[in-house]
Backbone:
């Protein structure tokens, strides 16, 4: 039941863009994105609830497809501070408040 | 800014011993969680707790584990008869309970079982 993220890892130069995908075999109620820096706790980035929704600002944004089985996180003009592991957190049913995290994507931004 | 606090930050124990990990969630939050992360790997859901009882639990959360909220503020995870494979970072998280869905995580308790 765990959502699958792709790619598993990505290395970028500062200023480059990246897309991280989170895919589920069945429809999700909601998806959230978290970033975890090495040795630290995950930190919430954003939540998407509606199919077709896009959210965020110009640097970090996310989308949720119409079928609510896939979400993508877009990192544009990456900065060194973007380095970390990104997880999608998924809720399969409304009101369960049970969040299952995806497999994770390690992102490293080089100067 | 309110935060989730966890103690201890690191605990070393011998295989077979019992450990208790403690968490103080954010005071007006309603849902509490324990997650486990083996070094460098995925964040695994263990259990959620609401209204003084377990709301959801994973297959990992077997009879070896238990949770309690003994005094209305602390939220504890007890691991009985620890095994080598229990070595991991254990994160407590809390959720206000609205559709914001923002889990607030503590800094984690690193458990090392020797």
Residues:
């Amino acid at each position: 039941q765990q959502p699958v993220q792709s790619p598993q890892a990505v290395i970028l130069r500062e200023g480059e863009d990246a897309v991280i995908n989170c895919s589920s075999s069945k429809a999700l109620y909601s998806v959230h994105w978290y970033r975890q820096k090495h040795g630290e706790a995950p930190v919430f980035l954003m939540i998407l609830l509606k199919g077709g929704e896009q959210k965020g600002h110009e640097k970090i944004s996310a989308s949720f497809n119409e079928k609510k089985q896939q979400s993508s996180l877009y990192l544009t003009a990456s900065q060194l501070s973007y380095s970390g592991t990104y997880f999608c957190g998924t809720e399969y049913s409304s009101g369960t408040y049970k969040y299952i995290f995806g497999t994770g994507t390690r992102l490293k931004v080089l100067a | 800014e309110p935060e989730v606090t966890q103690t201890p930050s690191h605990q070393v124990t011998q295989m077979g011993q019992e450990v208790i990990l403690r968490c103080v969630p954010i005071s007006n939050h309603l849902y509490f969680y324990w997650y486990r992360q083996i070094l460098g790997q995925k964040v695994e859901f263990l259990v959620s707790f609401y209204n003084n009882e377990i709301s959801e639990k994973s297959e990992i959360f077997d009879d070896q584990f238990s949770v309690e909220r003994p005094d209305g503020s602390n939220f504890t995870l007890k691991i009985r008869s620890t095994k080598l494979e229990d070595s991991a970072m254990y994160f407590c998280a809390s959720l206000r309970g609205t559709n914001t869905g923002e889990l607030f995580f503590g800094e984690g308790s690193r458990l090392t079982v020797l």
